[in-house]
Every structure is written in structure tokens, then in C-alpha cells.
Specification:
The complex is a heterotrimer.
Chain A: H1 16-26, H2 34-45, H3 50-59, H4 64-73, E1 85-90, H5 93-97, H6 100-111, E2 117-118, E3 124-129, E4 141-143, E5 146-148, H7 153-165
Parallel strand pairs in A: 1-3
Antiparallel strand pairs in A: 1-4, 2-3, 4-5
Chain B: H1 27-32, H2 37-45, H3 48-58, H4 70-79, E1 86-91, H5 100-107, H6 109-123, E2 127-132, H7 137-152, E3 168-173, H8 183-190, E4 214-218, H9 219-231, H10 233-237, E5 247-254, E6 260-265, H11 270-277, E7 287-292, E8 298-301, H12 311-316, E9 325-330, H13 335-349, H14 355-372, H15 378-394, H16 398-402, H17 405-422, H18 433-443
Parallel strand pairs in B: 1-2, 1-4, 2-3, 5-9
Antiparallel strand pairs in B: 5-6, 7-8, 7-9
Chain C: E1 3-8, E2 11-16, H1 21-27, E3 51-54, E4 61-62, E5 73-75, H2 79-95, H3 110-118, E6 134-135, E7 141-144, H4 153-162, E8 167-170, E9 177-180, H5 197-201, E10 207-209, H6 223-234
Parallel strand pairs in C: 1-5
Antiparallel strand pairs in C: 1-2, 3-4, 3-5, 6-7, 7-10, 8-9
Helix pairs in contact in C: 2-3
Classes of the chains: A alpha+beta, B alpha/beta, C alpha+beta.
Chain lengths: 167, 444, 235
């Protein structure tokens, strides 16, 4: 069982845990810090694994199932490591009207993976978003955080192929 | 980050006033355009009931979608027993095809915060939260910057502007859950829980965040507050229609010549928006429908282009104001596929708590898939319609209750397209799998 | 607290204004079907079976979560409500994989009972045939997710009465499922006290005691109300 009277030591001496602890401390280690803390883990590590969830559960004195329940409820949280590069295809209404599903289908063909998956060489993660709020530029793809408006399959595919060559 | 240039519009700008004139990261720039004059006036010369009275008399209604009178909401929270009181700005703009709030938060962070601070004074709140989508990093950064600068200038924090009134604001990140736009789900999320809605009553005004009385308004609602108080309730009430006052910001996108943000007086017709402001449909294609209200809204056909846009008219047409997304569709869009697109959205965004929404959206999505594939019968259509009725009337929250709307509105105006898929095994717009199959058969 | 009078199904009844429609209906022998509701636990309002019609509002209201008020006129049993309830039950059958004949709870299942009471004689919505698992890692109990209707009674009793909060709901929408700890096998749970309360409150055969075969799993959940009352008195 978890001793809950003391604040837990970080799972490793990885300095990134300090950011996570700082987030919990800023919120007084209160239960309502859970979503903010999950955000800080994802920002620091890129994803949220079991080790992180255990650390948060002890830090915020929350039941494990509550931490897992929240982490899996929100689409933004990744429970698995992502690839070196990410390609997010927006599936918002304006993008849908302007052919986002065709764009996605072609990128699936290029990468050989389904949305939410990472190529076996760990180079590219293909992701989808509900709406980037950039509807005036539809269809939109976000390549490593950079927004590409009126994205055409040809240029985006070329970028993905370039990434996949650098393994 | 990318910036869409809002279009030039001759109409009155309230939310988007001084568009592009100021640096959204500099407090002094906002002060130059009468920023904080409303806040200073309110804090030094008005009592909280007087502020609420002004907001009530202006006729301002919630810009998040349902159009609940803002003054009445403030009054309910002000009167609710219990302390502390909280105030939440809902910036979880989740409707696909809506980007008004993103733009307002990015371009007018001080204005949103000024509105929140005035509201806090009016209802007696000492802590506020801005709940913003994590997908909007620039908005988050600018809001946080604005909070820091306002604290430095004693416009937030203890004894604001030398008065006894104190108010703090924190930013909380959403994490990709459309249902968190629903107020009880949003509260659960800020409390660090799964974003499950709960039955109302009790309403958040009585029992909200951490069990305390809570005011929740949308970004655009708060952005209206400072101009409204600066220029007076009568001025605000002189704009718009009888029951819908002021202006509305719309995000115009889809098959339209000039996509972008627009702000028009309530009561402007769809024709003026789509053709005069948006420049009509490109590539010589014909207008087919405009979708408003996001996944809880509907598709309005060309017969109703002259309808003035306000809360009541849109409801009458089987759609919904929503937060203000307007997606224009031309003849290349299949309305059955559009309905299926929205149902997929609702199915994936359902929290899964109540049975009608969790199972019903999945069932309806399957039926719509059967229709676009050309595998459905008229019995399937009857089942779809009865599920629409069930899910709309029995779901726990607005997500489920609104989920059938895209199907119901397309059935109302484009029933012939459903029949074409089911009976003739044909997609009139030529986009559905049934169409591709039909062509293969012809070629074979 | 004041006493109010109201009408349920055209009968004059009375109760306190801090009581719900469901409580007053049951006090008066009026049956409103429920699945997620359990006396002693917090209100979920999730199954939607107890929706009733209240004069003056066009919305259907959950009897479990709606307080009564003076002069209320309630209908619990209209043809429309019965039709909705039937379809909700059909949806629950279609959502999981329910095979009554081999189920440990056959004959003692609240989903089955509700179906019989409402006259559900066939499933009119398509079966979804999900792939779901059975977790038999716990020494005493098992969970068959194929039979879970996500009423979350197990989650609530574990949190609110036992105080362990071993269970919660993971993922969301049609993929949602109840989980123990970090979705770790139940038998490896650090927090489970093996009290078995979750098994007793489960309305179907999803949670069961090991060693039972078809139809042998009877449950009793009256202890919840008793425990809540006793614990309330002590404090």
C-alpha cells in the first residue's frame, strides 16, 4: 500500500520530474490539480505512462483508478510515446467539407499506419484533431507543431516521406 | 502561429472593435482604446446591483449557444447563498468549425479579463478561472501574459484600483473533450475529474465549482461587457432584434469565397452573411446549405437565406446559434454524409455516462454508415428516426440531446437525398461509397 | 423542510420537499424502473429508465434526481415512457454480449427483470458485438465486461461506502469500461480490500463470486442503506 503521509520521491533522478512536482506544489497538492499535473507530465515527457500515473496518484493522494480514469478520458493525453515527428490532420467541419478525409486516407497510405499510431521506425506519429480553430485555412495539417493551411496531400506526403527516410 | 485576417465589415463592431489596432500583449495599448475605463467606473461609481441592472437592461444573452439572459444569470449567482463564489470563463471552444473564441482570446485578452472582473464584482466572486482548450497555445500564452500585467497594474489581485474589491484569475487547460463545454462537465474538469456531466438542478449558480455558487459565461459574452457598460444598456439594446440584442461574431468557413471572422448585428440575414460579406460560393458552384450550431446544430437550405439570424429563428429552422460557427456547403456536399460526419463526432465525444447518448450515438452512426454505403432499407431509416427521438428526449446533457439535430435537420430539408441512397442506391452529390460502387457496376 | 402534496399517476400523495419523485413513488407503491439507482449511494442519473413526465415542463425528468414540489403532477407510466424504456433496455442488451442462459445471474438479474417487466420480447436495434474481456485474476471474484451495463454502482459503493475507490470508469463513450486501479488486473490491485460490496450491488452478472455456475449467483444489496445509516449515526 502507498504511504500517504509523505510526499513521494520522484520515480527517477530525471530532472523533468521537478517540473511535475512544481505543478503539484503550485496547486497545494490538491486533488483538483490532477488535469494540470497530467498536462505537465505530457509536456515534459511527451506522454503519460504507468510510472507517471503512480507518482501523481501518490503526490495528490488520489485513488489510482481516478488518475487512470481522467488520463484516459481526455483525448489530449497520450499514454504511449510518440514518434520523432508528428503530423496532425484536422477533422473539423470546415476541413471535412474541404476534403480532410481524403487527405488523411492518403497519409495513412504513405505512412502505413492508422490515426493514433506511430510508424514502426518510430519516426512519424499520425494523429487527428477535432478542430484546430483555423477553419479559414481548411484543410489544415500540423507538422511538428507548425500549421499548414490549405494542405494538399502531395506536399504533406512529401514531408512525411522525408521524415521517414531519416531513420 | 497563423493569423486569419478578419474581413472588412461595415457593421458595428463591439467584440472586435479596434480590430488590429492594438498589440494584444501590451496593457497600455488596450488602455489607449478606453480599456479598463468601464472597470474603473464600475468599481468606483456603481454598486453590484446597478451593474447587474445595466447588463439585464441591455438584453445581452449568453453567446455560448443557448442564449440564456446574462443579467438574469448574474443575478441568480449574486443572490445564491454560500461563499466563496466562483466565476468561470468557458473558452473550451469545441465546436468543429468555430474559431471565434480563439480569435477573441488571442486578440483581446484584456477585454475578456476586464469583462470577467466586472462580473466578479457584480456577483461577489473573489476567484475566477479561464478554461481554455490546450489546442490554443497562443491564446493561453496571451491570457497568462495579460493576467500578469493586470496584476502588476493592480487591475487584478488585492484591492483592485484602490477599492476594497479583490479578484484573482487562473488559467486552466482543457484536454480535448468536447463535452466539457457543458457547464457541469466543465466544472468536473476544473476539479480534476473526468468531464462527466451531472443532472441539473442543482444548477451551477447554486452548486457549482467545489460545491459553491458559480457563474459560467462564454468568452464572447465577457468580451461584450466592457463596451456595454462604457456605452450604456440603451445603446446596446438599440442594436439587433427584439429578442436578440447586440452583435454576434461568426466564423465563416467551408465553400465560401472569403472565409474569416465577421461580426454582424443580430438579425442580419444569412444571405447578407454568405453572399455580401462572404462573397458567395467560389468556382461557380451553387449554394446548398449553411451549417450552424456545430454538432448540436443543423443545416439550413437556400429557401431560408432571407431569415434573420437570431436565437429564435435558428431554433425554428431546426438549427441552433451555438457558439457561432457557420460552415457553407455547396452542391459537392452530400447531406447524409454531413449528418454521418457529425454523428461520428458526437459518438466519439460522448462521455459514456448515460445510456441513450453512449449507445444511441453509436447505433445511429452505424445506421448512417449503412445508408451511405447503400446497404440500408426504409426500415433502417424508420429506426434512425425513432432513435433520434429517443436520444434527443432522454439523454442526460446537451451533447446527447443535440446529437440527433444534424440528422433531423437534413431529414427535414434533404429527405430526398436519404431516399436516393436507400431506394435508388445513389448518392446525388457523388461522394458516398454507394456512388463509387454504382460507378464500378456501370463500368463492369 | 415542509410537507408538500402532489399527484403521481393521478393519485394524491404527500411527502417532504427534500425527497425525490422516486422516493415518494416507492413509498406509495408506485413502481418506476431503475438500474443505476441504489438506495444509499449517490445519484448518477445515468440509465435514464426512471424518466417521468412532469406537467409544466416539456423535458422528461429523472425521478431519482428530481425533488418534489407542491402541486406537482407527475406521470410515470405513459405509452411514450414505456416505449423509451423498452428501447433503452434493448440498447443495453445490444451494447454488450448478454447470453442469459449461461450467465451466473440468470433468473436473478435486474436487467433481465426490467426487460420482462417492460415486455421487451425482441431486440430492435442492431447488436454491436464488442470485443470485451473477462478478468478472473482476483482470488474470490471475477468481472465479465461483456455483461457490464456501466451503471457505476460498483464505482460508487467502493468509493462512498467502502472508502477504497478501487473502481472507476476508464476511457469514454462506447469504449468506456469500469477499471481497477491503473486498469491493472483486479487480482493485482493495491487498493482492493476484497470486501465484495461491488459484487453484491452489481445489477447483472458482470461482477460475480467465483465458483458459481449458470443461475447460481444471487445478490443482496440492502446492506448499503444499512451501512450508510449506521456510519452516519456514529459520526
Amino acid at each position: 500500500m502507498q504511504p500517504i503521509s509523505t510526499k513521494p520521491a520522484p520515480p527517477s533522478d530525471d530532472k523533468r520530474w521537478r517540473i511535475v512536482t512544481a505543478t503539484m506544489r503550485r496547486h497545494g497538492f490538491r486533488p483538483d490539480a490532477l488535469v494540470e499535473t497530467l498536462h505537465s507530465v505530457q509536456e515534459a515527457f511527451g506522454y503519460i505512462d504507468d510510472v507517471a500515473m503512480r507518482f501523481i496518484a501518490r503526490g495528490l493522494q488520489l485513488p489510482p483508478s481516478r488518475v487512470y480514469g481522467a488520463a484516459t478520458f481526455y483525448n489530449y493525453f497520450m499514454l504511449k510515446p510518440q514518434g520523432e515527428h508528428t503530423c496532425v490532420v484536422c477533422l473539423g467541419t470546415a476541413c471535412y467539407i474541404k476534403g480532410a478525409s481524403d487527405l488523411l486516407a492518403q497519409l495513412e497510405a504513405v505512412t502505413g499506419v492508422k490515426p493514433g499510431e506511430t510508424t514502426p521506425d518510430k519516426q512519424v506519429s499520425l494523429l487527428t484533431a477535432r478542430c484546430m480553430g483555423a477553419c479559414g485555412l481548411a484543410p489544415v495539417a500540423v507538422l511538428d507543431g507548425e500549421v499548414h493551411g490549405t494542405a494538399d496531400a502531395k506536399s504533406v506526403s512529401a514531408k512525411l516521406e522525408e521524415w521517414m527516410r531519416h531513420d | 502561429m497563423i493569423e486569419e485576417r478578419p474581413l472588412f465589415i461595415p457593421e458595428q463592431n463591439i467584440v472586435l472593435e479596434h480590430n488590429g489596432d492594438i498589440d494584444p500583449e501590451v496593457l497600455e495599448d488596450y488602455s489607449k482604446i478606453e480599456g479598463f475605463t468601464a472597470l474603473n467606473h464600475v468599481l468606483t461609481e456603481m454598486t453590484p446591483p446597478e451593474v447587474i441592472d445595466q447588463v439585464s437592461r441591455s438584453g445581452l444573452r449568453g453567446r455560448g449557444g443557448a442564449g440564456y439572459p446574462t443579467g438574469l444569470k448574474w443575478q441568480t449567482v449574486a443572490k445564491a447563498p454560500g461563499t466563496p463564489k466562483y466565476i468561470i470563463c468557458n473558452g473550451d471552444e469545441g465546436d468543429p468549425g468555430a474559431f471565434m473564441d480563439r480569435n477573441v482570446m488571442e486578440a483581446y485578452p484584456f477585454k475578456v479579463l476586464e469583462g470577467m472582473t466586472i462580473a466578479a464584482y457584480a456577483i461577489g466572486a473573489s476567484q475566477g478561472f479561464l478554461y481554455v482548450r490546450a489546442e490554443y497555445p497562443l491564446a493561453v500564452q496571451r491570457l497568462k501574459n495579460a493576467i500578469r500585467q493586470m496584476e502588476k497594474h493592480n487591475l487584478l489581485g488585492k484591492n483592485i484600483a484602490g477599492t476594497p474589491f479583490s479578484f484573482d484569475v487562473d488559467v486552466r487547460l482543457g484536454a480535448g473533450a468536447f463535452v466539457c463545454g457543458e457547464e457541469t462537465a466543465l466544472i468536473a474538469s476544473i476539479e480534476g475529474r473526468r468531464g462527466n456531466p451531472r443532472p441539473r438542478p442543482p444548477y451551477p449558480a447554486e452548486r457549482g465549482l467545489f460545491g459553491c455558487p458559480t457563474l459560467i459565461n462564454n468568452v464572447e459574452t465577457f468580451a461584450n461587457i466592457a463596451p456595454l457598460l462604457r456605452k450604456g444598456a440603451e445603446w446596446f439594446a438599440s442594436i439587433g432584434t427584439e429578442k436578440s440584442k447586440g452583435t454576434k461574431v461568426f466564423a465563416l468557413s467551408g465553400r465560401i469565397a472569403r472565409a474569416g471572422l465577421i461580426e454582424v448585428p443580430m438579425g442580419t440575414t444569412l444571405r447578407e452573411i454568405v453572399f455580401d460579406i462572404g462573397g458567395g460560393i467560389p468556382d461557380g458552384k451553387a449554394f446548398k446549405a449553411v451549417q450552424t450550431g456545430g454538432p448540436s446544430g443543423g443545416c439550413i437550405p437556400s429557401d431560408y437565406l432571407d431569415m434573420p439570424v437570431d436565437y429564435e429563428s435558428l431554433l425554428k429552422l431546426g438549427s441552433f446559434m451555438g457558439s457561432g460557427g457557420m460552415i457553407v456547403m455547396d452542391e459537392t456536399s452530400c447531406m447524409v454524409d454531413v449528418a454521418r460526419y457529425f454523428m461520428e463526432f458526437c459518438m466519439s465525444e460522448s462521455c459514456g455516462k448515460c445510456v441513450p447518448c453512449r449507445v444511441g450515438t453509436a447505433q445511429m452512426y452505424q445506421l448512417l454508415t449503412k445508408i451511405v454505403n447503400g446497404d440500408a432499407t426504409l426500415n433502417d431509416l424508420a429506426l434512425l428516426e425513432s432513435l433520434c427521438d429517443l436520444v434527443r428526449n432522454t439523454s442526460l446533457c446537451g451533447l446527447g440531446q443535440g446529437a440527433p439535430n444534424p440528422v433531423l435537420s437534413t431529414l427535414r430539408y434533404f429527405r430526398d437525398e436519404y431516399i436516393a441512397h436507400i431506394v435508388d442506391k445513389r448518392c446525388p452529390a457523388g461522394v458516398c461509397p454507394v456512388h463509387k460502387r454504382e460507378h464500378q457496376e456501370v463500368n463492369a | 423542510m415542509t410537507v408538500v402534496t402532489l399527484k403521481i399517476d393521478d393519485r394524491d400523495v404527500s411527502g417532504r420537499d427534500d425527497e425525490t419523485i422516486l422516493e415518494i413513488a416507492r413509498e406509495n407503491g408506485i413502481v418506476i424502473p431503475t438500474l443505476c439507482y441504489l438506495e444509499g449511494l449517490s445519484i448518477a442519473g445515468a440509465c435514464r429508465l426512471c424518466l417521468v413526465e412532469v406537467k409544466g415542463t416539456s423535458k422528461l425528468l429523472p425521478a431519482c434526481a428530481t425533488r418534489v414540489s407542491e402541486g406537482m403532477e407527475i406521470h410515470t407510466n405513459s405509452e411514450r415512457l414505456t416505449q423509451y424504456r423498452r428501447t433503452i433496455i434493448e440498447m443495453l442488451f445490444a451494447e454488450g454480449n448478454h447470453i442469459c442462459s449461461v450467465c451466473v445471474s440468470n433468473g436473478h438479474c435486474q436487467l433481465q427483470d426490467a426487460a420482462v417487466a417492460l415486455g421487451v420480447d425482441h431486440i430492435g436495434v442492431p447488436y454491436l458485438h464488442p470485443h470485451r474481456h473477462v478478468d478472473a485474476s482476483h482470488e474470490l471474484f471475477g468481472i465479465d465486461h461483456n455483461r457490464c451495463i456501466l451503471c457505476a454502482r460498483c464505482v460508487r459503493v467502493c468509493d462512498e461506502v467502502e472508502g477504497a475507490h478501487t473502481w472507476d470508469v476508464g476511457v469514454r463513450g462506447i469504449e468506456a469500461r469500469v477499471v481497477t486501479d491503473f486498469s491493472t488486473p483486479w487480482g493485482d490491485s493495491d487498493t482492493c480490500t476484497s470486501c465484495g460490496k461491488c459484487v453484491q450491488v452489481c445489477p447483472t452478472g458482470a461482477l460475480f463470486a467465483k465458483g458459481k455456475s449458470a443461475g447460481e449467483m444471487t445478490k443482496q444489496s440492502e446492506f448499503v442503506e444499512y451501512l450508510v445509516a449506521m456510519r452516519g449515526r456514529r459520526s
